[in-house]
Write a structure and sequence with these properties.
Elements: H1 2-16, E1 27-40, E2 43-59, E3 64-74, E4 81-93, E5 97-104, E6 107-110, E7 113-116, E8 120-129, E9 132-140, E10 148-158
Antiparallel strand pairs: 1-2, 1-10, 2-3, 3-4, 4-5, 4-6, 5-8, 6-7, 8-9, 9-10
Protein name: Outer membrane protein beta-barrel domain-containing protein
Organism: Candidatus Saccharicenans subterraneus
Keywords: Signal
Length: 159
C-alpha cells in the first residue's frame, strides 16, 4: 500500500507542473450525500449505509485533480456505530466525466471505543453537470481485491 501512496504522490508532483492549464479556481470544495451497501463473499446487499462527505478538489492540471476527502457512513436506524473515512483520490476529469482511484482509512466509532481499519483502495467513476456530480464508487479490501466490497453512489454539489 505504501507503493500505491508513493505512486499517487509522484504522479501528483509530475502533474503539478502543468498548473497553467488549470481552471480559475485551483481549489473547489464539494459536499456529497449518498448510499452504499456491501457486496462480497458474505452476501449481497446485507446492509444499507448512508454517507455524507466533504472533499476538496485540488486542480493539478486541466484534467487531473487530487481530492482529499472525509466521509461519514452510518446505518439510518442504528446509532451504536458509525464510520469516518478520511481518504485521498487522484481523479481524471473532463467537462462531463470523472474517473479516479485512491485510498481511504476506515475508522470505526462504537459505543465502547474506536477501531482503525487498514488502508483500502477506492475506485470511482462519475458524471459532471455544472456544479453537480453523480459518482459511483467501490471500496475494496487490499488483501483480497474485489472479493469484499462496499459499493455505492453519491450526489455532490460544488461550491
Amino acid at each position: 500500500m505504501k507503493k500505491v501512496i508513493l505512486g499517487v504522490l509522484v504522479m501528483s508532483l509530475l502533474l503539478a507542473g502543468n498548473l497553467t492549464a488549470a481552471r480559475k479556481k485551483a481549489v473547489v470544495l464539494s459536499w456529497n450525500s449518498g448510499i452504499m451497501t456491501y457486496i462480497g463473499s458474505q452476501g449481497v446487499f446485507s446492509c444499507l449505509l448512508l454517507s455524507e462527505g466533504i472533499q476538496a478538489d485540488l486542480k493539478l492540471s486541466s484534467n487531473f485533480q487530487l481530492s482529499p476527502e472525509l466521509q461519514l457512513l452510518y446505518e439510518p436506524f442504528r446509532d451504536d456505530y458509525m464510520f469516518i473515512n478520511p481518504g485521498l483520490v487522484l481523479n481524471f476529469t473532463s467537462k462531463k466525466f470523472l474517473a479516479g482511484a485512491g485510498v481511504i482509512l476506515p475508522v470505526l466509532f462504537e459505543m465502547n471505543g474506536v477501531e482503525f481499519g487498514r488502508l483500502s483502495p477506492k475506485f470511482n467513476i462519475g458524471f459532471i453537470e455544472g456544479d453537480t456530480f453523480l459518482a459511483f464508487y467501490m471500496i475494496t479490501d487490499k488483501r483480497h481485491l474485489f472479493r469484499d466490497n462496499l459499493v455505492g453512489f453519491v450526489v455532490g454539489f460544488k461550491y
